[in-house]
Specification:
about 150 residues, mainly alpha, 5 helices
C-alpha cells in the first residue's frame, strides 16, 4: 500500500480514529471543501469588483454567501458526514448563524485592509480568508458537529 493509499484509507475511515484523529481528518476535509468554496467566493468577488465595478464590500458579501452555500453542501456530504450532532434543520440554522458571523468578520477585515490600509482587493482577501477559515472550522466543529462521536 502506497503512502497516498494509506492517507486515503485513513480519511475514509474517520470513525475508527480517536477524537484528535477525527478532528484532523475533518480539518483536511473542511480545508478541501473550503478551497472549492473559496474559488467560487473569490471568483465572484473579483468578477463583480474588478470586471463589473461593483463596490468591494457588496461584491465580497455576494461572493462569501455564494461560497457559504457551497461549503455547507460539501460539509454535510463529505466533511462531517458521520459527525451529525443536530437535526438537519438545526444544523442549517447553526451553519447560517456561523456564516453570518463569518460574513461580518469578512466585511470588517476587508474594510480594514482595503478601506483603511489601502490594500488591493485581491491582496486583502488573503488574510481575510485565513482568519475566517479558522473561525468557521472551529465554530462549526464545536457547535454543529460532535467531537466525540463514533
Amino acid at each position: 500500500m502506497t503512502f497516498s493509499d494509506t492517507v486515503r484509507a485513513t480519511l475514509l475511515r474517520r470513525d475508527q480514529l480517536g477524537p484528535v484523529g477525527r478532528i484532523l481528518v475533518d480539518l483536511i476535509r473542511y480545508g478541501a471543501a473550503s478551497a472549492v468554496a473559496l474559488a467560487i467566493d473569490a471568483g465572484i468577488l473579483l468578477l463583480l469588483n474588478q470586471a463589473l465595478g461593483v463596490n468591494y464590500l457588496v461584491a465580497s458579501a455576494i461572493g462569501f454567501l455564494s461560497g457559504l452555500v457551497v461549503v455547507y453542501a460539501l460539509s454535510v456530504r463529505y466533511v462531517y458526514d458521520d459527525a451529525r450532532a443536530l437535526h438537519p434543520s438545526q444544523e442549517i440554522a447553526g451553519f447560517l448563524v456561523t456564516g453570518v458571523i463569518g460574513l461580518v468578520l469578512t466585511q470588517a477585515l476587508m474594510a480594514l485592509f482595503v478601506g483603511s490600509l489601502a490594500l488591493p482587493v485581491p491582496l486583502a482577501k488573503i488574510p481575510t480568508v485565513a482568519v475566517v477559515f479558522l473561525f468557521n472550522f472551529l465554530s462549526r466543529r464545536m457547535l454543529l458537529f460532535s467531537i466525540g462521536n463514533k
